[in-house]
Amino acid sequence: MMPNQLLEMKNITKVYPNGVVANQNVQFSLAEGEIHAIVGENGAGKSTLMKMMFGMEEPSEGEIILRGKQVLLASPQDAIDHGIGMVHQHFMLVPSFTVAENMVLGMEPKKGVSINYNEAVRMTEEMSKKYNLLVNPKAKVEDLSVGMKQKVEILKALLRGAEILILDEPTAVLTPQETEELFRELTQLKQQGHTIVFISHKLKEVKAICDRITIMRAGKSEGVFWTKDVTEQEISKLMVGRDVVLRYDKEKKPYGAPILSVTDFSLADETGKALLDKVAFKVRGGEIVGIAGVEGNGQTQLVEALTGSLAVRGGNVAIKGTDIQGYDIRKIRSLGVSYIPEDRMRQGAAKDASISDNLISTQYNTKAMNNGPFLKSKKIAKLATTLIEEFRVRCSGPNQPIGMLSGGNMQKVVVARECSTAPDLLIAEQPTRGVDIGAAQFIHQKLIELRDGGSGVLLISADLNEILELSDSLLVMYEGQIVAYLEEPWAVSEEELGLYMLGINRQDEQQIRRAVEA
Amino acid sequence: MSSLFNVIFTTEFAFSVLRVTTPILFAALGALISNRAGIINIGLEGIMLVAALSGVVVSAYTGSSWVGLMGAVLAGTLISGILAFFTLHFKTHIILGGVAINMFASGGTVFILYLLSGDKGSSTSLPSKVLPSVDIPLLKDIPVLGPIFSGHNVLTYMSIIAVFVVYYMLKRTPLGLRIRSVGENPQAAQSVGVSVVKVQYTALLLSGFFAGLGGAYMSMGYLSLFTRDMTAGRGWIAIAAESMGRSTTVGTTLTSLLFGAADALANALQVLKIPAELIGTLPYVTTVIGLIVYAVSESRKRNRKLKRLEKKS
Lengths: 518, 313
Ligand SMILES: Nc1ncnc2c1ncn2[C@@H]1O[C@H](COP(=O)(O)OP(=O)(O)O)[C@@H](O)[C@H]1O
Ligand SMILES: [Mg+2]
Known about the structure:
The complex is a heterodimer. Chain A is of the alpha/beta class.
């Protein structure tokens, strides 16, 4: 069946002002009513291609043809006027506004000179019902979960009359449940006649809901395929240019002494709801301990406490025998702890600072890096160059601002910084979220190297594949409690894990206690 | 000490607080609007100064204080427009642009004053007009309240009205929503077709408009003539008031009043035998104390929250 052509991008080339060729003679076409996946590693040029379709960037060469007519999309407004909407990788919402305010921003319903807020709420409710995307119009966006924010984004685009909906890595920030919900919603949108572009790294997802796939690699299109005609292996081969090994060989060695011990750690929020309830576990040298769980079940608070941004009060946290009560992140780091934060854009990196500045930002104040008030710039430059090479960061040099790198490369810099100090304990929070397969594998390899060198690693991840493959032992958190301790995670099926994560199953006290006693 | 209380607890003092707050409040509202749009207008001082001179000159040549007021406001808006043009169009750094405006205003007003009146210090030789004071019927006869709130310059009342207008504008109108969205997340605004540049232009023009009113008040209400550098740091104090007021309309108004009170106190204390230099530091000392109080109360709040958490767990 030859699909009904809706939009075509012909011979698109995009050269950014800094000289990066992000797209090179790319062909892309959209058929009416399909869900079309764009897959490719980080930095392959997917977002760039979509930004041109949404009028945020202008192609250096090539043309965009919509319904048989060439169109010029000079601004997002142009694209919106043509019925194109986009949900960005980083949400475009105003946190202090309510959902309804975000919905109508730029097209506010008026009563006299003021905004007709009731009308805005009504519009939001109407769209919410029509597309079965349930949101609370009066809730403040900053209080919403990531999944909710995404719904608001989708509704925003639909309210503006989007027939073509572009979703840039929508599942990167979602829990498995939220992802499933999103898929149901997208399928429904498709049935209502919308055309959807779906960018993802996760091939399973792509296989699950997409009709066709365009594969991109290094700024070029590697072709377009019917989803049912290609296997995951074939796709990943075209994406990465090599076969992806999804298994890691880990040396089996006896564990060392405990590095992190958490005893009966409890915490409640303002309303008295328990966030953490008697959490207890150990991380030993040479061990990767994974923490799995649906987001919002206490993982964030646990990490905040371990990294000093939340005070440890009820219970005890010790690193190498030292009680860290009252310690800030610097003092905790001085105990030999490294931390890869979940949010690399806000916490992990200083976007406008150079790669080399970011690399030394945790140790600029040590003797090794400075002479009194002056930094040892030669030494720093050498360190940066070495790390860039070792971690294969694709960049123009150590002085490039880190914000210009693609997500995967930015994350490699963060990982390089955290691994380079030879930590005794590494706390890795979603270390490969939104990162392409190649970079993710590389980061996994580095975590295993650390473990093999005798360091302890605490891995918090929503990526089940990652956590099952890497962990030596696995904790599952549900509603602030540890509900399971699993000693051979690789032998556990995703289904079994899911039952623990959703709170349907839980181990008995004794089995869970093994996390401390083993 | 008792003489100090004699100075402060009088209706004259309360009246003078409102009187000296007026220009600070106008400029602070200007700072508020531009800051909420994510662009800090540090040219307020210069804009006020140019407006003050324009008011005097226009009213002197037209013989009308109201036309003078329009001239002042127009000049303030225009100067702010120039600043906006350079920063938003040519991408000059706003701080550089603002500093340039302030320096240009300081020198330029003296130059024009000299051209028109032959005097470099003040506009005594120009027959400029003053905006009227207003007695409020009924209110003016109430004891205590009457002497405090009645009989002010018409611009003082306008500044109070302006507080409500700005509050409503920011909270309830489409422009206010757009200004706040641009200040908080410009990409979000851009992505739904709100032009960040256009909103920031509007905000800076409004900012200049209010600073213009403040400037007009200086030379056509507070005093009845223009003198060299007569704004004397009020544009800067307004910026401090806005940030101490945490970028809210209510907070900004209250801190403006606080600075006004400090200013009025400095004026009032001059009758006592305290060195004038020391008194002159009062508004600035108030700033520092205000910031400390703010910081302490914030950290108390944080601690209380933590304590609460601790109790619960
Ligand atoms: N605004 C920009 N300026 C310069 N280079 C950019 C910009 N945005 C992206 N790039 C570069 O273009 C390439 C493609 O990026 P992108 O389209 O974001 O890839 P993807 O979405 O596939 O991960 C990357 O090398 C990235 O560093
Ligand atoms: Mg991208």
